[in-house]
Write a structure and sequence with these properties.
- The chain is built from 27 helices and 23 strands.
- The termini are far apart.
- Strands 15, 16, 17, 18, 19, 20, 21, 22 and 23 form a nine-stranded mixed beta sheet that branches. The chain has an eight-stranded mixed beta sheet with strand order 7-14-13-9-10-11-12-8. It has a six-stranded antiparallel beta sheet with strand order 3-2-1-6-5-4.
- β13 and β14 form a beta hairpin.
- The protein is elongated, with a radius of gyration of 32 Å.
- Helix content is 44%, strand content 16%.
- By secondary structure, the protein is α/β, with parallel strands linked by helices.
- α14 crosses α25 and α19 packs across α20.
- It has four domains: 171 residues, GAF domain (Beta-Lactamase, 2-Layer Sandwich), CATH 3.30.450; 109 residues, Glucose Oxidase, domain 1 (3-Layer(bba) Sandwich); 105 residues, PtsI, HPr-binding domain (Enzyme I, Chain A, domain 2), CATH 1.10.274.10; 310 residues, Phosphoenolpyruvate-binding domains (TIM Barrel), CATH 3.20.20.
- The structure holds phosphoenolpyruvate and magnesium ion.
- Magnesium ion binds next to α22.
Length: 755
């Protein structure tokens, strides 16, 4: 038996020279296998590349019959090579032919070879091919040789990833890395986006694979690991994390990995074999990912995320790359792909260039989703594994309506979507034509259409959408995307900018609706078992009057000399309105004392979103100047269904009898008292639901800006009286069956109402 190979380092250096030679891809591949065989004193060295049809095709060989190149093929799972690809693990066999999976390929002439060592060619945990060496004699390859071959496989992975081998593919075949993939996720934002992948955290591309000085590289790695450990320990010491919670669990997992001796040892080993410190991190990360990805245990799969994060961080430390975006130019049709990101990070991108957003995590009410919706970006969340499936620059389609992502779509899928986008654009054009018309129903009822907003980026939509004002300004969004509590001046500046942009159009500012799922990272609150029903919105505002008073002062000052409409969220008890009014009065008096200009007119309103108010409507109407129905929360509480829990959130129909009866009761009571009522939950932006609301008697709806066109088109075609009569009958019919939605869609169809 021979000793361990003389020098994987020598081999890597030689490969680097080959990579730089101005030769064809096939010649380069041939030279590489020849070099590996010579260096490892093997009679055979072969490279198989995985095709999109699941076949591993021989792309180059030294030792097997040359005619077999591009002919010899095995399916994933078939033969030794297929087994390696399937399991993403090396196979080291002294007597290959006695292995149960062995399959003889006559065209290769491999029957003379006894020992066999094969390793997967991996990139970001994905198998791209298999690299094999074989010898005539019976022998077991040393661990060092296995390691050396794995290291060498990285060079081939790079060649495949940069697309160098694509030209070698047989006609009609395709390398798997470029295979079209459809990933099903969760629809987060309407619309469809076609473009090219921009990884939010670009895989740090390790360009220097081959190290010159192993000792120096080892020292660099040690220093980087030390700084990584310090970072994790520092995080764990932070006050807000020291208490228990999800963050702490994640960081504990980080700490466990950061101190994992096996991890560190494997990286040092890779350096000894000739890699740079960063290439060593990448290699071990890819091996580990391949191993953990095959785990079905969700706990272990989650740990993979933690491990990945940590390895990426280590790479960044080593390569001196800050966290986040690199300064590279964004393409004009960027689709941002990320595990997850903060809302502020999304705002850092140039909006003009973003066509879509895809997240591996991300729920419908997460901050980044709210901002993406405000920006009108097609988004999909919970797209499992998307980050390791794509490369920067890959063509990609985000279908925010179906909740699907198409990576590297085939031409027919792409043209179908391009058609869809054109169709939507045409519809948008039709909406633009009616933008400046009033929303009057076919039978002459005037409906006011307003938009919801919360950020400066929303303001241009006021003019673009033709909204008659802002029916709901969610002030908490400014707080949610900030790194610290916005100061009085900052709040005032935002409110003044909103009022300036709105001009004579009314704006309804809702006081802070934080708490529940709307958490502020810098505001420490105790963990709650039922946050949606916990210390949130006006409850928190009244318990922490400092916060609410600052906001009220900012609103009063911003609205000097103008009308100010203030609305309270989550009102449960009428006393909450009285207390807030007292706070406002105090501040108004303060303003007058200091001879500041007060708002010309102050109107106070309440959100109707807690069911208790349904039984207080007769008294509520005497306390406020207007009300607005928060149908999102009202449905959540009326049906005891968590709006953020995708398992149950679509279980109960928003167009069901109990909910519509509740909505009718609100509009009736308000009508009797002559009190203005708006509905500002998401249903107002759905044409069928909006049609129903108008049928119930609502004459003011507030929705996302993008929904205004479709809702106005529906309104103009609606015979209101006829629908109201149908609704009265079906809602009052105590023997009636449940087909309300069917009645409504049937009505719209029969009347030719565009939905
Ligand atoms: C609602 O609950 O319907 C609403 C408009 O408020 P938010 O979605 O901000 O809770
Ligand atoms: Mg609400």
């Amino acid at each position: 038996m021979r000793g361990p190979p003389a020098g994987p380092r020598v081999l890597l250096r030689r490969l680097r020279e080959i990579m730089a030679e101005p030769i064809s891809a096939q010649e380069r591949l041939d030279k590489i296998v020849t070099q590996i065989a010579a260096n490892m004193v093997a009679e055979v060295c072969s490279t198989y590349v995985l095709r999109s049809d699941g076949v591993l095709e021989l792309y180059a060989t030294e030792g097997l019959k040359r005619e077999a190149v591009h002919h010899a093929q095995l399916r994933v799972g078939q033969g030794l090579v297929g087994t390696i690809a399937d399991e993403a693990r090396p196979l080291n066999l002294p007597d290959a032919q006695s292995h149960p999976a062995f399959q003889y390929l006559p065209e290769t002439g491999e029957e003379q070879y006894s020992s066999f060592l094969g390793v997967p060619i991996l990139r970001a945990g994905r198998t791209l091919g298999v690299l094999v060496v074989q010898n005539r004699t019976h022998r077991t390859y040393y661990d060092e040789e296995v390691e050396a071959l794995q290291t060498t496989a990285m060079v081939l992975a790079e060649m495949i990833a940069v697309g160098e081998l694509e030209r070698l593919a047989l006609p009609g075949t395709q390398i798997d890395l470029k295979r079209p993939v459809t990933v099903a996720g969760l629809s987060l934002g309407e619309g469809v986006g076609l473009g090219h992948v921009v990884l939010h955290e670009p895989r740090v591309v390790v360009t220097a694979l081959i190290g010159e000085d192993a000792e120096a590289e080892s020292a660099r790695l040690d220093a980087a690991i030390a700084s990584l450990r310090l970072f994790v320990d520092d995080m764990l010491q932070r006050d807000d994390i020291r208490e228990s919670g999800e963050h702490r669990d994640i960081l504990e997992a980080y700490r466990m990995f950061a101190h994992d001796r096996g991890w560190v040892r494997r990286m040092h080993e890779a350096i000894r074999n000739g890699l740079t410190a960063e290439a060593a991190v990448e290699k071990v990360q890819s091996d580990t990912r391949a191993r953990l990805q095959r785990q079905t245990d969700p706990f272990l799969r989650d740990r993979l995320h933690d491990f990945d994060d940590l390895a990426n961080r280590l790479l960044r430390v080593l390569m001196n790359k800050p966290h986040g975006l690199s300064g590279e130019e964004l393409p004009r049709d960027a689709i941002i792909v990320a595990r997850n990101m903060g809302a502020a990070e999304l705002l850092d991108y140039d909006r003009e260039r973003i066509r879509g957003l895809v997240l591996e995590e991300g729920g419908p009410t997460s901050h980044v989703t709210i901002v993406a919706r405000a920006l009108g970006i097609a988004s999909v969340g919970r797209a499992n594994g998307i980050v390791s499936l794509v490369e920067n620059g890959d063509p990609i389609i985000v279908d925010g309506i179906a909740g699907e992502v198409h990576v590297r779509p085939p031409a027919d899928v792409e043209s179908a979507y391009a058609e869809k986008v054109r169709f939507r654009a045409k519809r948008q054009e039709q909406y633009r034509l009616i933008r400046d018309q009033a929303a009057v129903t076919r039978d002459g009822h005037r409906v006011t259409l307003l938009m919801n907003a919360g950020l400066l980026v929303d303001l241009p939509h006021l003019a673009e959408s033709g909204a008659e004002g802002i029916g709901l300004f969610r002030t908490e969004l400014q707080f949610m995307i900030a790194a610290r509590m916005p100061k009085l001046k900052e709040q005032q500046a935002l409110y003044a900018a909103v009022l300036d942009a709105a001009g004579s159009r009314p704006v309804t500012f809702r006081t802070l609706d934080i708490g529940g799922d709307k958490v502020l990272p810098y505001l420490r609150t105790a963990t709650e078992e039922n946050p949606a029903m916990g210390w949130r919105a006006i409850r928190l505002g009244l318990d922490r009057p400092g916060l609410l008073r600052t906001q009220i002062r900012a609103l009063l000052q911003a609205a000097a000399g103008r009308e100010l409409r203030v609305m309270l969220p989550m009102v449960t008890d009428l006393d909450e309105i009285r207390q807030t009014r007292a706070l406002i009065e105090r501040d108004l008096a303060h303003l007058r004392r200091h001879r500041h200009e007060a708002p010309a007119r102050l109107l106070m309103g309440a959100m109707v979103e807690v069911p208790a108010l349904l039984f207080e409507l007769d008294r509520l109407v005497k306390e406020v100047d207007f009300i607005s129905v928060g149908s999102n929360d009202l449905l959540q509480f009326l049906t005891a269904t968590d709006r953020g829990n995708t398992r149950v959130s679509s279980r109960f129909d928003i167009l069901s009898r109990p909910f519509l009866r509740a909505l009718r009761q609100i509009v009736r009571e308000a009508g009797k008292a002559g009190l203005p009522v708006t509905l500002c939950g998401e249903m107002a932006g759905n044409p069928l639901a909006a049609m129903t609301l108008i049928g119930l008697g609502y004459r003011s709806l507030s929705m996302s800006a993008a929904a205004l066109g479709p809702v106005k088109a529906m309104t103009q075609a609606l015979p209101t009286q006829k629908l109201s009569e149908r609704l009265e009958v079906i809602l009052d019919d105590s023997n009636g069956h449940d087909g309300i939605r069917a009645m409504l869609t049937g009505f719209a169809e029969a009347e030719g109402i565009p939905l």
